[in-house]
């Protein structure tokens, strides 16, 4: 009799396990089907994105080629400025000399070209010229 009860209990446990396993298998099959369906949809989305970016790249390349051909540039590809280029460009300070300052500079160049080395070191024009040269040096550094 104990064997019959033991066998009945074992049969009941096996049926419960079978039911749990069937549910789990069904769940795994549904997940697998969804994964493949989503995979196809995701693949389609990725292909669309790729095509869009490819068209953008081709349009940009055509625009670059147009500019290169128009201005006869010796480069094969124009590039977008990098973040580093933008930072460097912001640091540059453009000091333009006014026409009055340009005239003074030219006059000073003429005056110093005539004078000797000793006179250059002592003349006011030379000091002013050195001052302008220092400003010009600061401009380019």
TrEMBL record:
One of its GO terms (biological process) is mRNA splicing, via spliceosome. Residues 1-23, 108-127 are annotated as: Disordered. It comes from the Eukaryota. Pfam families: Saf4_Yju2. Residues 7-23 have a biased composition (Basic and acidic residues). This is Uncharacterized protein. It comes from Zancudomyces culisetae (Gut fungus).
